[in-house]
Model the fold of this input.
Amino acid sequence: MANIKVVLDKRRMRNDGTYPIRFYVYHRGPFFISTNFTSSLEDWNEHTNMYSDSIRGAKAKNMTLRAQVAKLEKDINDLEFTNQLARLSKDQLKDLLSFTLTGRKKNREKVFVDYIDDYINSKLDNSGTCELYERTKQKIEAFDANCTFDTINKAWLDKFTKFLAATLKVNSYAIHLRNIRAVFNYAIDYEITTCYPFRKYQIKKEETRKKALTIEEIKILRDYPVEKHQQKYRDIFMLMFYMVGINIGDILKAKPSDIVNGRLEYRRTKTGKLFSVLIQPEAQEIIDRYKGVDYLINVLDTFVDYRNFNHRLGIELKRMGEVERVGRGGKKERKPLFEGISSNYARHSWATIASQLDVPKETIAAGLGHSSNSVTDIYIKFNIKKVDEANRKVLDSLLVHPEEEGDEIAKF
Done:
């Protein structure tokens, strides 16, 4: 008899801080059946393997999950009763149970969403990017699960755009359209199709507010008397800035062995490019303060996933600022320093300030790991000194007094 239970799959956290809920099945080995449900650690009851009763909608969600388990168990009981279960392999049972929940057979003719899976498996190795494509796949399945390369034309894209626009902003749904375009390009490269609806379709883009702080704002954040529990979050943000806007995952996953001759050498998770960043004294002071056991800094000694910390980092950055207790209960009323700030601001701020200091665009691109006609994929051998000098120039700008700041920038 195959066993089924509901589990919160903690192997990969989603961008919104939740984890997927799956059905764990054991039949000649373990496998998972996906559901459309997710939950945060706080909203999940580990003892009952269900949503905590205290959250909104828990009763309905738990009822649906139990109903789906009952449906799967009925399938297994029927297979066992007819003596078919013993003849099925693990993969065969997984296909049957998945069809019970989704109505989609594995051996059907391939449709567009199947090629999204192929693209993910053959082209992508970054968990965050994979998740974006999975979300695109879910949107397509909700709109037209059986669409193919042949049926996706300009009219289809127009209708799909209207479908997405009902719940998403322009730049959010543009991500899904770009993902579809990438799968088309992949299919053309591998001679799977000759169709290309994007010749006549332009993906819209909406200008957004720059995610960058000025030199003076960076100094204010660095020196502000934040609450004690916020100090570590502010310091990690500053460390990212001091390290040429390094990605949060790359700095948190760095190991002591990655330090070579005073430089952090690593491959950027998003692109796989080799990086080498000189550790400036400002960065070294923070690294020493939060020295880790298995990691360069100690965040992942206590956090299971760097994205959990990044989620908390975003929350605390937005809360930093003036705090006043009001009312009888002493509730905290906050006046944030910077609305909307997140860890991404460290990277954007470094690039913006470097540009203001007349650092050449190709050097900024090299520091951030962007592709450029003037920057080779092995830029470290050629531009490493330029990036070091640019970073020192950016960090030195923070040492200038406000009244001298304008004059100093003008000198560069």
